[in-house]
Amino acid sequence: MSLLAVRRKVACNGLAFVNSIICIMKTLVTGCAGFIGSTLVDRLLAAGHDVIGIDNFSTGQRRFLDGALSSGHFSLIEGDLLDDVTLGKAIKGCTVVYHLAANADVRFGTEHPRKDLEQNTIATYNVLEAMRAHGVRKIAFSSTGSVYGESAVIPTPENGPFPIQTSLYGASKAAGEGLIAAYCEGFGFQSCIFRFVSILGERYTHGHVFDFYKKLKDDPLRLPVLGNGKQRKSYLYVQDCIDAMLLAMEMAPDKVNIFNLGVDTYCEVNDSIGWICNALGVQPALDYAGGDRGWIGDNPFIFLDTKRIRALGWSPRLGIQEGVLRTVAYLRQNEWVFELRAS
Ligand SMILES: NC(=O)c1ccc[n+]([C@@H]2O[C@H](COP(=O)([O-])OP(=O)(O)OC[C@H]3O[C@@H](n4cnc5c(N)ncnc54)[C@H](O)[C@@H]3O)[C@@H](O)[C@H]2O)c1
């Protein structure tokens, strides 16, 4: 049972002062209409929180919020984190922020270098400033294993050698992490910074399963593959990711708490192609672009050490293959996501 649920139970038993504290507890989720953000919103609501969500719908989907909007405990603010006034309205009265809004795309960073800076770094600065202005002191941040660049230490621990950045996305997230840590030191904030591997599961709208599925829909006989298919990657199921975030936000003791989130294994891109093709019943010719990286900034081997989050009692329930298959099943039942992304 979550700490909040325990407190609510106590409140129901007659401690009015606890109840009054609970009633004013509100959580802000930025990027609330996204793949991970909307899943988090549903989980927070199920755990008894009141949730405010902010999203500019650049990649978020309204449909992901249908359940939340009918709950009576969720308010949606449609707006951009770069707009201070709207952000201020959203954050007012909140006690904690889960900051997930970002440009989550790694691959096209070099095509629009300013986007990562604005959406990931400046937006994070704006969130921190809004927190400061409204007396909010606790933040969860969705960072990424991309901040490690191409680490020489595998599995990569949170306190590995200071990394050299290889993507604008990773660099913008590393800058966001830096700002958060400095606000913790400077203004008495507490933070959990989560470095995710790639996340899979229901509401998935971008990433390798999405790309391969879409290509196979267009042509089941030939599958173009970026790189040589031997890139080694690790993936985590979205509900396992949320479990870890919620647990850490309750238990993490330090001012700045950094957690890798991932499973304790990895696979080759070729393995994942095999699972996807089997699930779809297709046997395409594989057309490799060649080279050991799919794009500039693609880390050919990502595998994170997750001992730190496991020490809090978390472990993932699904392995990589199961996560891939659930994602394929979701995409099969929700092919509308391809049309929206295309438009
Ligand atoms: N999906 C992954 O595999 C993965 C891996 C590592 C880290 N992350 C991080 O997790 C977070 C969520 O990723 P996701 O996969 O759910 O991506 P997503 O694109 O589905 O969600 C991001 C959401 O943020 C919103 N948004 C973007 N910029 C905004 C702005 N300026 N103001 C308001 N809303 C804005 C988008 O509309 C979208 O709803 C991101 O911070 C991403 O960098 C994701």
Describe the fold and architecture.
The protein has 343 residues and is of the alpha/beta class. The protein has two domains: 222 residues, 3-Layer(aba) Sandwich (Rossmann fold); 84 residues, UDP-galactose 4-epimerase, domain 1. It is built from 13 helices and 13 strands. The strands form four sheets. The protein has a seven-stranded parallel β-sheet with strand order 3-2-1-4-5-6-11, sandwiched between helices. α1 crosses α2 and α3 packs across α9. It is globular, with a radius of gyration of 20 Å. The relative contact order is 0.13. The N terminus is likely disordered. The protein binds nicotinamide-adenine-dinucleotide. Nicotinamide-adenine-dinucleotide (NAD) binds next to α3, β2, α6, β5 and β7.
CATH topology description of the largest domain: Rossmann fold
CATH architecture of the largest domain: 3-Layer(aba) Sandwich
General shape: globular
- Radius of gyration, Cα only, in angstroms? 20 Å
Ligand catalogue: nicotinamide-adenine-dinucleotide
Instruction: Give the CATH class of the largest domain.
Output: Alpha Beta
What level of helicity do the residues show? Answer: 40-55%
Q: Total number of helical segments? A: 13
Task: Please state how the strands of the largest beta sheet are arranged side by side.
Answer: 3-2-1-4-5-6-11
How many strands in all? 13
